[in-house]
Amino acid sequence: MAAKYGGISIMSGAKKIGFFGAGRGSYYIRGLAAIDNMEAVAVCDKNQQALDNLKKDFGDSLKYYNDFDEFLENTDMDGLVLCNFFHEHVPYAIKALEKGIAVLSETTAGGTLKECVQLVETVERTGVKYMLSENYPYMRGVQELRRLYAGGTFGRLLYAEGEYVHPVSDEDGWALSPGERHWRRFMPATYYLTHSLGPLMYATGQTPLNINARVIANPRQEDIEQGKTRQNDPAAIMLLETDGGAIFRITGCAAFAPHGNWYRLACEKGGMETVRFDEQQVRYGYNYWCVPENNEASKIYQPSWPFNNEQADNTGHGGSDYWVLYYFGEYLNKDVKPYFDVYKATAMSAAGILGWRSCMEEGALYKIPDFSKKADRKIWEQDDLTPFPAEDMSKTLPSNVYDMKHNSYK
Question: CA 251 to CA 402: how far, in whole Å?
Fold first, then answer.
């Protein structure tokens, strides 16, 4: 029987979960109330104001830390949720794994190819559980695409599309990237691809083998020079060949208009997609000569969740945050292996990294490493090139087209 204290579900024998990052972490802490046998115990963030805000809601039911090493050393936890900066997950994941603490990591899994190798080898050596916290595959519509495709009536997948489109105003863009070194100011257009690629992988069960990409340059070059807008390019378009012989076309985090997410599977006998501007709904259709007996030739509808409808409806990101926590709980409590394990997680990171190098080379084709293979790891184990600046603002890759034109990198 669960008791409630400070908004958190407290259970005897529940897995104890810590959080690194109070902002995004707050959503997960609240979401744990809907998950059996899991409880939040502590949170760490260097931003004291973020901790103070969290304490207003949760009081003494959580412990609060500013220093990660102190947090790790003094907190009795079974799992750690990494909600820190986009490209800085691996060093903290490794510290937790080395202490036997399971890791649920926000995207991206690794900021460099070297880090991807280090992460995989740490998971293999320690045997500690690791899962990627990629939530968009668990959107209602995407889960329905997975169910429909698995039914087999649409035939073999030929082509798929995934778009994650999230434009922001200049004002919001600056507010979301405070400080001259903030990662959002330096993120290439291919790097944040998990919300477009992850749903296609999950819906089809296919993994990308290679990638080529082209970047759309920021058209506001004069505004960049005058400091009116950030340098970030609005989008990159990526083509990936999969191990199932299909082609995926995806965006990264695109900033063209209008806002929305969209996913499509095009198969031999028919196809299916989420409905544009309403990704809760799904549309499917068959070729007229391929309609299965007792099936409709086409249909638009809003599917239900696979199960646990009420719990999913009451969590963030359209219910998808619930499923990330649910499957992490299944992993910790029942050893049910997650779809987005360390190999799929690092494959997506590598696709984003190498997609950017393809853009730099006008669409050159890059093989995506399979980090389960030692030979592939060997190729990339020393590759620490990065578009994100060190404390002295030095970096080894350009971050956008403006950067390419105005700076040189070896």
Answer: 19
